[in-house]
């Protein structure tokens, strides 16, 4: 029994459960942006089924992506993070590859059950994740952009629930998570050995642009007062650890800033949902925050 338990825990550690919750929040935000949240049959079976399928899709895509991250980093992790499932021997590299393939397949197939557009976006997301894991992460500029594209596509995956028309109208919003995740990816490279304040300051400016864009969209949607509390909480969660890391850019402090940035994605998505669909969708997404934080204490986020 202990062998099976350790193996299952190893698989879960590879999949980063706390991060998957943030990916589900992307989907729900995309659903809100698409207008699908406001349709008359909200929370009926006809509404819930495609939403659940997209949630399953993003879970498979994100889980498979981070599993392959550890597969490609196995040799490096054996030196820098020997406690991780693959270098510690809890999960073999072959087992991890099989798990990653299964998860990506589930993600793509689940998306295709919603509509062809969603399936195509899921395919692009899986490809972008593999490209990042194999090559992108080693590139100073293209790497963070590559990682950001994965997250931007995830937001588009949520929007795709309402078809191609919504993507043409609001697809540009996917550039915001590209910028945000690009910033997090940029500073995450120093979370093991520490680094300089330059990348942290650049990330702070990129975060500010993200906050201003969300606020501007809320004004255009005439929901600025509903959205402001979410933006304020978002800023608190990202800037508190970032400012601490700027004062002392050690590996642990930068790691906390990265973790804070990832968890704060849920609040950012709650802000998007509120700006487009009102307070209730925002609160529903925000309810995922304590779940992700609890999982973040049990399983590594980065």
From TrEMBL:
Keywords: Cell membrane, Membrane, Transmembrane, Transmembrane helix. The keyword Phosphoprotein does not apply. It is a multi-pass membrane protein. The chain crosses the membrane at residues 20-41, 47-69, 90-111, 145-163, 169-188, 200-221, 227-243, 263-289. Its main location: membrane. It is found in: Membrane. It holds the Pfam family UbiA. This is UbiA-like protein EboC. It comes from Chitinophaga horti. The lineage of its organism: Bacteria, Pseudomonadati, Bacteroidota, Chitinophagia, Chitinophagales.
């Amino acid at each position: 029994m202990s062998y099976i338990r350790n193996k299952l825990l190893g698989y879960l550690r590879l999949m980063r459960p706390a991060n998957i919750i943030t990916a589900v929040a992307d989907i729900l935000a995309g659903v809100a942006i698409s207008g699908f949240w406001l349709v008359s049959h909200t929370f009926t079976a006809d509404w819930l089924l495609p939403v659940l399928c997209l949630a399953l899709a993003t879970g498979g895509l994100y889980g498979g992506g981070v599993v392959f991250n550890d597969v490609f980093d196995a040799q490096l992790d054996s030196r820098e993070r020997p406690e991780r499932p693959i270098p510690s021997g809890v999960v073999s590299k072959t087992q991890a590859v099989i798990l990653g393939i299964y998860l990506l397949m589930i993600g793509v197939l689940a998306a295709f059950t919603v509509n062809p557009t969603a399936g195509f976006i899921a395919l692009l997301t899986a490809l972008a994740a593999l490209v990042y894991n194999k090559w992108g992460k080693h590139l100073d500029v293209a790497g963070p952009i590559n990682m950001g594209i994965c997250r931007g596509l995830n937001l588009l995956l949520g929007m795709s629930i309402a078809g191609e028309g919504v993507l043409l109208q609001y697809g540009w919003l996917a550039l915001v998570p590209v910028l945000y995740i690009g910033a997090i990816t940029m500073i995450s490279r120093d979370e093991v050995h520490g680094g300089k304040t330059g990348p942290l300051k650049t990330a702070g400016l990129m975060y500010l642009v993200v906050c201003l864009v969300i606020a501007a969209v809320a004004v255009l949607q005439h929901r600025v007062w509903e959205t402001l509390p979410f933006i304020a909480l978002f800023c608190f969660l990202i800037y508190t650890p970032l400012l601490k890391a700027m004062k002392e850019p050690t590996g642990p402090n930068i790691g906390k800033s990265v973790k804070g940035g990832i968890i704060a994605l849920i609040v950012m998505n709650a802000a998007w949902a509120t700006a487009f669909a009102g307070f209730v969708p925002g609160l529903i997404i925000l309810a995922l925050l304590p779940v992700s934080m609890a999982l973040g204490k049990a399983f590594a986020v980065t």
